[in-house]
Predict the 3D structure of the following.
Amino acid sequence: MWNDYYAPSTMDEALDLLSRYSANARVIAGGTDLIIELDRGVRRVGSLIDISRLSGQDGIWLDDGGWIHLGPLVTHNHIIVSRLCVERAFPLARACREVGAPQIRNRGTVAGNLITASPANDTITPLLAMGACVTLRSVRGQRVVPLAAFYAGVRRTVMAPDEIMTDIAFPALQPNQRGTFIKLGLRRAQAISVVNCAVVITLEDVLSDARITLGAVAPIVVRAPEAEAELAGQPFSMEVIGRAARLAQHAATPIDDVRSSAAYRRNMVAVLVRRALTQLMHGAERADWQDAPALLWSAGAEEQSPSLPLSPSPPLPLSPAPIMLTVNGRKYSVEGAHDKTLLRLLREDCGLIGSKEGCAEGECGACTVIMDDKAVMACLVPAPRAHGAVITTIEGVNQMATAPINGLHPLQQAFIDEGAVQCGYCTPGFIMSGAALLQEHPHPTSVQIKESLSGNLCRCTGYYKILSAFEKVAARATEQMPAEERN
């Protein structure tokens, strides 16, 4: 899928590489979109420049001027667990919770979501509503571009080929401001938006300001100026909300596609805007927010994995050197796998065939593994990214259990006891997601269990037996707790 894989150790090195190879290179961090494009032949590159382990690039902070900054390696799950973002950038936090599934959110970055430039991408809508800007940097210097001026069309931006997005910044919501994000998809998880919307309001005695943005209804994410003008200076009421919701439809120029008709999208614009404004009027936008999400992280997940080997400056491709990794406690040295995915490396070079390829695009979860204490879709991870990493696959999942049962992870035994396996193809992915959940939340709630499985698909069981197996393990763990802790 690519020829050379570079691993710069600093942002300056990354920029220098991109300057020299920009015509035939792409920067990769999460890679959850790029790997699919390369695999399908939609995009062709000669070189990948991996910035995913650059130190200090995954920070979230508030500056003295009241602006929140996101580094280029901030993932969707980083946003979800950021108290700063949940409290003062709630529309973005809610949007990140809607992206993909936990395994995708562990790899996918907010910067990557912006750069992909699909009008259906979930994080663009709230960031546009909050007045975000992005910093683009190259060896020629850097420039700050308002997000409103960043997009030139469907999947097109104003970024030059030699630029990297190094910062995303936006004003933190003030005490008199509230906002939310609502998404309509064809299913509850792992779904592209049919329509999404973000609303941010400033409330004095009346609505002194309102910003409404709409996704998946035009070639780029758009604002709804007529609806915003209708709200300005008005008291909050259902009558005002109804008028604004209808006017928001005027900003939509949707198309018919496989997910929806244009007419349905236009109608749903009014529905979603009305729902968002009604929630904000009643202060109910956080009513269903869960403070303990299933991230599928375990202890140590926040620590970066060991750095890729450094080459003399300028950095050389990694391809001449073997990929060194630890899988299920065993060290491997793999040569000739630099143009593969991690899934192919595990199956073809390590002989670990328990991880399955179901969809090759991060939809089914059959390839879920634990990499450096986070669950990921192995089909979307470039094999060189695993250099120096510690990985657990289904063959070693019992090592994640504090008290294996008959040599099995308790969840494996529960799958047997509850009859949660039919054809078995998807089972390794479910077990790996569950093992990660049980390390993160030893006594998971039903909501956490379902969220942890949102990235795993099964064609046979109807899921009821799978849920029963999870609940059995959770119940057993609760029974083993000291009585005082249960209360």
In short: Residues 323-396 form a domain with the Ubiquitin-like (UB roll) fold (CATH 3.10.20.30). The first helix runs from residue 11 to 21.
